[in-house]
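Contributing new records

If you add data, match the layout below exactly. Sequence lines come first and carry their own label; structure lines follow with theirs. Keep one chain per record. Anything else will be rejected by the validation script.
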Amino acid sequence: MVGADLQEGLRMTQIKTRPAGSASEKVTREPSRPIWLSMGLFVLGAGAALVALLGPLAADVIRYHASEGAVNQIIGGDVAGLLLVAPVSVFAGILVWRGKRAGPVLALGPSVYALYMYSQLAVGGDSFRYPGNSERFFLFYVGLFVLAGAIAVRAWAMIDPGRLPVIRPWLARTLGIFLLVVAAFLVVGLHLPGLVDALADQPASTEYLADPVVFWLVKFMDLGIVVPGLVVTGVGILTAGPWVAKLEYAAVGWAALLGSSVAGMAIVMQVAGDPAASVANTVAFVCFAAIALAMAAFLYHPLLRKDPR
């Protein structure tokens, strides 16, 4: 009898001292909210807007060591940076702050865009050939590059594939095919003709002769990073690879932002009468940008709904 009473007393003591189960469950189920990631996205958005406003688009405080044609491309990119990259970064920061599952996913697009774009702006000029002062902002671009890399890594780690919406088969197939088509266009339609000309005994391409450093840098990054990434992601989507769940969100977000930026570059070059401008390329880039933006809207819309419990 005494033993039974003692066991009952111990059981009641454990119940009283045990942490509330519902509270502990809430702690484990509640999405993490790293404040530094939110702040980093806000800073990245402000940085993207500052790059655009200080550049040739507006204040012309940052003057790049580049030809007039390359500056026209920078202006087009700055328009996309101001109207798309900066707002998306801030919006992603708000979602991360609120613990929404869409926050880290949305953060991948602007962070990867910044890695690609600001590395080119930092080192792509020719200071021996063209006047400018962009080297004075080198550390600013380095800071944005490091910040974007940290955001991309942390956002990628935060994404739980199990909490991502199931993508409809038709959308997945369309996205996979689209990424492969873009990769093929970049290789065959955009870069191959320029490479053939640049490797000739007497290159004649205006774009290459005016900005050889920018020319080779873009070729290296597109053919060495962008095209392989698009091909791997596209094939993974079409073969329903289990590892591609997060990658497809990153790819479509980046493609929408960079596609819009490149379309802006092509349009500005066309309006300015740049000899390197091509009507065919402008139409292609505008179409690619429109498709990428539409697919991003389809892909992200279910993600922005109320988080599942």
